[in-house]
Structure prediction request, 261 residues.
Amino acid sequence: MNTERMDGRVFVITGAASGMGAAMAHDFAQRGAKIAIFDLDDEHGTKVADEIIAAGGTAAYYHVSVTDKAAIQQAADKVEEQFGPIDSWVNSAGVSRMVPFLDSSEELWDLTIDVNLKGVFLCCQVAVAKMLEHGGGVILNMSSLSGKKPSSWQTIYCASKFGVQGLTESIAKEFADQNIRVNAICPGIVPTEMWDRLKYEYAKKRDLDPEEVLPYFKKNIPMHRLVDIQDVINAAVFLLTDNSSYLTGQSIKLTGGEWMD
Prediction:
């Protein structure tokens, strides 16, 4: 197991009430980081924070919409009052649907772009401003294989994640000489709560039984396994620590060999 410490680091993790965000929150807290959970799911966000505290860690939950800059700013200010200067920020909040292109609604476009792209844009603005005040920091954007590889029935999601790639690289370039690093992770299929729903939508696309969907993916991945949450955490720890001090504007593709470019 990766034993890299994060003692004293102050993290904001969006979308940390569930999935990859929650897993990173738990792991980073065990490494000594102070964790601020930004989410709209009060029940599960509070539960993650309480679990971290019960295990001896430091965490707090904040009810925040990543599409509301004022709310992000207010919560970030409270985090700094409670924990100290924010030096690490993970943008993990996201939504995903699988819908044929011609059936994709304007409402789905607005929701997906608002959360997946505008949300990252707004959070990065707040994060960068905070980090400039304190001499630097590191931002990690959770993108997707769909930010590198087009996919039918996921046109809007792909557009949002391709956008995250452009944001990541542009922000990284602008602030590279001010001690702010910005990188992304592009995972393939991570069997989280999101895929508990998506497998039914993908089953329609491929005319499969829903329970055949994940095995279907495994068959087509050269390593013949899906992305494990620990794979995501290991990559995140690398990008968020000095082990990657010369890396910025980069995307790690966690795809088991499925996509290489």
Observations:
- The longest helix spans residues 106-134.
- Strands lie at 10-14, 34-39, 58-63, 88-91, 137-142, 180-187, 251-254.
- The CA atoms of residues 101 and 155 lie 6 Å apart.
- DSSP finds eight helices and seven strands in the chain.
